UniProtKB/TrEMBL annotation:
<feature type="active site" description="Proton donor/acceptor">
    <location>
        <position position="123"/>
    </location>
</feature>
<keyword id="KW-0325">Glycoprotein</keyword>
<dbReference type="GO" id="GO:0008270">
    <property type="term" value="F:zinc ion binding"/>
</dbReference>
<dbReference type="GO" id="GO:0006518">
    <property type="term" value="P:peptide metabolic process"/>
</dbReference>
<keyword id="KW-0862">Zinc</keyword>
<dbReference type="GO" id="GO:0005615">
    <property type="term" value="C:extracellular space"/>
</dbReference>
<keyword id="KW-0378">Hydrolase</keyword>
<comment type="similarity">
    <text>Belongs to the peptidase M14 family.</text>
</comment>
<dbReference type="Pfam" id="PF00246">
    <property type="entry name" value="Peptidase_M14"/>
</dbReference>
<dbReference type="InterPro" id="IPR057247">
    <property type="entry name" value="CARBOXYPEPT_ZN_2"/>
</dbReference>
<dbReference type="InterPro" id="IPR000834">
    <property type="entry name" value="Peptidase_M14"/>
</dbReference>
<feature type="domain" description="Peptidase M14">
    <location>
        <begin position="1"/>
        <end position="153"/>
    </location>
</feature>
<dbReference type="InterPro" id="IPR008969">
    <property type="entry name" value="CarboxyPept-like_regulatory"/>
</dbReference>
<protein>
    <submittedName>
        <fullName>CBPZ Carboxypeptidase</fullName>
    </submittedName>
</protein>
<keyword id="KW-0482">Metalloprotease</keyword>
<dbReference type="GO" id="GO:0016485">
    <property type="term" value="P:protein processing"/>
</dbReference>
<keyword id="KW-0479">Metal-binding</keyword>
Length: 187
């Protein structure tokens, strides 16, 4: 996330520091301009390749998270291909970010690679810059999907790692056989 000529904005640095200080496990980035849910990796394994499927070791979990949002969204889950986002209908309203288009420096990739936080990107509506009078409708279209997504925080591994005296162990590494991506315990 640092390369020649690439400056990280102060507010982005602050969010990165915040993410490293609090053990978040789930987040979503909300964008406009389409109706689809994308998941990491957003940056292609082969930078010169566009639209290249680039899964993380947690591909199944990310697909489940993205589907939890998409399936609860009344328009994303609509099977009509003649609407905004209709080109994602056959994919269930979700796509691997790099398979849609590859870009570097995304927060979803950063979160996965440098924190315990799994993040998806939600394109919440067809307008990139919706008018104020459209916001109420967009909120209602996304409310239940956001709540459904938030409930996904209870999926996966959870618990307390403790020593033989019952004291929590900070920064213990958790590994799952078959998944080449460890997470660490919080405070």
């Amino acid at each position: 996330f640092s390369s020649p000529g690439f400056q990280v904005a102060p507010e982005t640095k602050a969010v990165m520091k915040w993410l490293r200080s609090i053990p978040f496990v789930l987040s979503a980035s909300l964008h406009g301009g389409e109706l689809v849910v994308t998941y990491p990796y957003d940056y292609s394994r082969h930078p010169m390749e566009e639209k290249m499927f680039s899964p993380t070791p947690d591909e199944k979990m990310f697909k489940m998270l993205a589907k939890a949002y998409a399936d609860a969204h009344p328009v994303i889950s609509d099977r009509s291909e003649l609407r905004c986002g209709g080109n994602f209908v056959k994919r269930g309203g979700i796509i691997n970010g790099a398979e849609w288009y590859s870009f570097t420096g995304g927060m979803a990739d950063f979160n996965y690679l440098h924190t315990n936080c799994f993040e998806v990107t939600v394109e919440v509506g067809c307008e990139k810059f919706p008018l104020e009078e459209e916001l109420f409708t967009i909120w209602h279209e996304n409310r239940d999907a956001l709540l459904n997504y938030m409930e996904m925080v209870h999926r996966g591994i959870k618990g307390i790692v403790s020593d033989k005296f019952g004291n929590p162990i900070k920064n213990a590494r958790i590994s799952v056989r078959g998944i080449q991506h460890d997470v660490t315990t919080g405070n």
